[in-house]
Amino acid sequence: MSANATLTIALSKGRIFEQILPLLAAADIYPLDNPDTSRKLILPTNQADVNLLIVRASDVPTYVQYGAADVGVAGKDVLLEHGGVGLYEPLDLGIARCRLMVAGQPDALAAAHIGRLRVATKYVRSAERYFAARGQQVEIIKLYGSMELAPLVGLADLIVDLVESGNTLKANGLVPLELICHISSRVIVNKAAWKMKHNRVMDLINILRQTVSTDSFD
Ligand SMILES: Nc1ncnc2c1ncn2[C@@H]1O[C@H](COP(=O)(O)OP(=O)(O)OP(=O)(O)O)[C@@H](O)[C@H]1O
Ligand SMILES: O=P(O)(O)OC[C@H]1O[C@H](OP(=O)(O)OP(=O)(O)O)[C@H](O)[C@@H]1O
């Protein structure tokens, strides 16, 4: 847990940072630096006792689990991979919405009976769980990005990746095949901070909750 006087919030830059800004503004929190132009990784805010940590999206739960940040915002995809140890997940912000899907070339599933399928993905745990639940034996190949390339060069038959507009799949001649789950970003809280900084954390969560529920009626 970060020092008692401060509230430290871990975020990733890019879409989560952009989409959380108006929600933080509703809680009267304004970063004093822009992570796109600043090299700073600890961003001060207009509130002297609130800091933002800028970390990789997939590292947000780790910072919160170990108490380096009290609170974080992370995609459900990332939380499913992390497993949620040491964290509470009290609020779905409904931002950075997309779907975790199985995708491949249009005929990929027709080849399924021929042998054990190879599946390339960054989302190893979710993919393993999905195929195991269907009783399908697959070989999972861990990648860190550009999953769409794998079926094009014979590295894998299928991919498990995030899909929003479908444009990335389409640009690479791939199609969405099966939905694994819907994804959105969640507020996560370190378990010790939940107890020790309960009022501060709850004040923030209550404002965020109110703001996202109001937004959804716009
Ligand atoms: N195309 C998309 N549309 C909407 N939401 C998305 C999309 N891609 C990812 N997301 C969501 O936004 C989160 C952050 O995505 P972002 O692209 O910033 O990080 P990343 O590149 O996936 O992670 P890392 O930097 O750790 O590899 C993801 O975890 C997911 O929940
Ligand atoms: O269906 P679409 O609207 O095309 O979005 C899907 C793409 O978005 C994500 O990548 P992102 O844009 O985050 O790039 P990154 O993986 O390099 O971060 C995801 O990994 C897909 O490649």
Automatic annotation (TrEMBL):
Q: In which pathway does it act?
A: Amino-acid biosynthesis; L-histidine biosynthesis; L-histidine from 5-phospho-alpha-D-ribose 1-diphosphate: step 1/9
Name a biological process GO annotation. L-histidine biosynthetic process
Q: Which UniProt keywords apply?
A: Amino-acid biosynthesis, ATP-binding, Cytoplasm, Glycosyltransferase, Histidine biosynthesis, Nucleotide-binding, Transferase
**What InterPro entries does this protein's entry cite?**
ATP_PRibTrfase_cat (IPR013820), ATP_PRibTrfase_CS (IPR018198), ATP_PRibTrfase_HisG (IPR001348), ATP_PRibTrfase_HisG_short (IPR024893)
Per UniProt, residues of the ATP phosphoribosyltransferase catalytic domain are: 56-209
GO CC annotation terms, alphabetical: cytoplasm
Give any GO molecular function from the UniProt entry.
Answer: ATP binding
Assigned EC number: 2.4.2.17
Q: Which residues cross the membrane?
A: none
Location in or out of the cell: Cytoplasm
| Location, primary (coarse class) | cytoplasm
**Catalytic activity annotation:** 1-(5-phospho-beta-D-ribosyl)-ATP + diphosphate = 5-phospho-alpha-D-ribose 1-diphosphate + ATP
**Family per similarity comment:** Belongs to the ATP phosphoribosyltransferase family. Short subfamily.
Partners and quaternary state?
Heteromultimer composed of HisG and HisZ subunits.
Role noted for this protein: Catalyzes the condensation of ATP and 5-phosphoribose 1-diphosphate to form N'-(5'-phosphoribosyl)-ATP (PR-ATP). Has a crucial role in the pathway because the rate of histidine biosynthesis seems to be controlled primarily by regulation of HisG enzymatic activity.
Tell what the record comments on domains: Lacks the C-terminal regulatory region which is replaced by HisZ.
Know the name of this protein? ATP phosphoribosyltransferase
* UniProt source species: Thiospirillum jenense
